Amino acid sequence: MKQTLTFILIFLAAITSNAQVVLLQETFQDWTAEPGTPPVAPSKAYSGLPYSITKKLFDGKTDGTFTSNALIAAPGQSIGSPGAAEGNGSPSKGRIALRGTSTYLQLPELPSVGKVNIKANAGTDLKEFKLQVSTGGSFEDIPGTVTACSKTVTKLFTFNLSYSSPTTLRIVPVSNSSIFFYDLEVYSFPKR
Predict the structure, then answer these.
(1) Contact, 79 vs 181, CB < 8 A?
(2) Where is 185: in which H helix or E strand?
(3) Are 168 and 106 in contact (CB under 8 A)?
(4) What's the pTM value of the predicted model, to 2 decimals?
């Protein structure tokens, strides 16, 4: 009995040490809309404004800064009609929009990065976004992260990454159509 209990405790400790921890959970509800920002998809002539926001990350203690060279923050925007969503329920109210291949949303530096969840849709069907990682002062595409969005359905996209040291990610559109991001969740890389 004592040996069985010891084995169970060791097994549970191993599971716990390999567990991923939520580092960042963002719904964009507390971001500030720019003056004059329309509550609908940006027009072809409007590509957003530079943006920076520093806030507490998921632990409630650590400050992290999100930056973008051109985004539209719409904290009151829902997914609209018909409001279809798949993958872990409907997204939260609040979103940002990125438009154009030179735009990005840069996440705060995190101590490690494992699983990344993103809920998104697009202004036009099959428009894509990708993830990039900072390496040596520049950003490089993360292979296998180019993802096509749907116009009519907000989907949950999950990326299983494995960065065990401090990491900075960017979300970047692959096309010039608008892509709308509703929820963002980043987990730590599990300790071995």
Answers:
(1) no
(2) strand 178-187
(3) yes
(4) 0.81
Phi and psi angles of residue 4, each rounded to the nearest 5 degrees, phi first: -65, -45
What is the distance between the terminal CA atoms of the chain, rounded to a whole angstrom? Answer: 28
Phi and psi based region of residue 87 (left: phi greater than 0; alpha: psi -120 to 50; beta: remaining) = left
Where helices occur in 1-150 by DSSP H, the ranges are 2-17
Residue 12 lies in a domain: no
Count of C-beta atoms within a 10 Å radius of residue 64 = 18
Cβ count within 10 A of residue 116? 21
Q: What is the CATH number of the domain that holds 183?
A: 2.60.120.260
Q: What are 119's two structure tokens?
A: 């809920």
Which residue reads 């567990």 in tokens?
A: 19
Confirm whether 11 is domain-assigned: no
- The residue ranges of the chain whose pLDDT is under 50 are 5-17, 38-45, 81-82
